[in-house]
Amino acid sequence: MCGTNLSGSASLPTGVDVSANSGSSLPRYPVSQMSTNAQSGLASYWWRVLGFIIDYIILGALSAVGSRVAHLSFYPDLIVISVVTFFYGALTIAYWDGQTIGMKIVRIRCVNEADGNAVQLRQAYVRAAVYVVLEVIGSLVAIHTHTHPTTQQTRQEARDLVVVLALSLPHLLDLLWPIWDKENQTLHDKFAKTVVIRPTTTLL
After folding, report:
1. What are the CA-CA distances from residue 92 to residues 3, 62, 136, 197 (Å)?
2. What's the rounded Cα separation, in Å, for the pair 166 and 197?
3. Dist. CA 143–CA 98, nearest whole Å
4. Domain residues of the chain, as ranges?
5. For the residues of the chain, what is the DSSP string, one character each?
6. Could you report the per-residue pLDDT of 80-118, keeping only the tens digit for each?
7. How far apart are alpha carbons 89 and 66 in whole angstroms?
8. From CA 156, how far away is CA 140, in angstroms rounded?
9. Rounded distance, CA 202 to CA 25, Å?
10. Could you say which of 9, 68, 83, 124 would form a disulfide bridge with 94 (CB–CB 3.0 to 4.6 Å)?
């Protein structure tokens, strides 16, 4: 995330630790402070949505170009998209100061839930894997439609609607979970034990 080094006159909210990662321009927020302090810096749901949309556009554009150039069929295309999404989410979070491109643009950052420090590689892999699995489950709707484009299927819209909702529900819940979660976590955050912050303090 953007920012400059701390000067002697800069002040930070109580509980913020900048010593844990001197190479980062972002303060660390212990979860105990996140839960009790309104200025703790947890990213709001809509900042997360905006960052997600930016990443979705980037990944969608890359996947579309790759599929067109490689002339991939449906299943290889799905596999490539899933693999690219997994490594994009995991490696940027693990090695780019806890941020994807979209997260960096909207100034939010993924950190360790326990102490607010940098996300470990294992956590980043778990986080990305859970997200991709839930997304693929939702994509089974597209697989079903692709492999069974029959007239009979179009006559069974009610049943198909149930299938669509059932298969899409895990991914939808994952994306909506921060709305009612006290730590603004998605399900893949919970599995990886991470939180996303957006510090309100500008580092001078």
Report:
1. 19, 16, 21, 16
2. 31
3. 33
4. 31-197
5. ----PPPTT----TT-B-STTTT-SS-B--HHHHHH-TTS-BPPHHHHHHHHHHHHHHHHHHHHHHHHHHT--HHHHHHHHHHHHHHHHHHHHHHTTT--HHHHHTT-EEEETTTS-PPPHHHHHHHHHHHHHHHHHHHHHHHHHHH---HHHHT-HHHHHHHHHHHHHHHHHHHHGGGT-TT---HHHHHHTEEEE---SPP-
6. 889 999 999 999 999 999 999 999 999 999 999 998 999
7. 18
8. 17
9. 10
10. 124
**Residue appearing with tokens 């303090």:** 201
157-176 helix and 121-147 helix, angle to the nearest 10 degrees: 170
Pairing of strands 194-197, 109-112: antiparallel
Are the CB atoms for 37 and 29 separated by under 8 Å? no
What pTM did the predictor assign?
A: 0.68
pLDDT at 4: 40
| Token pair recorded at residue 161 | 């609607």
192, 127 in Cβ contact below 8 A? yes
Residue type, 147: T
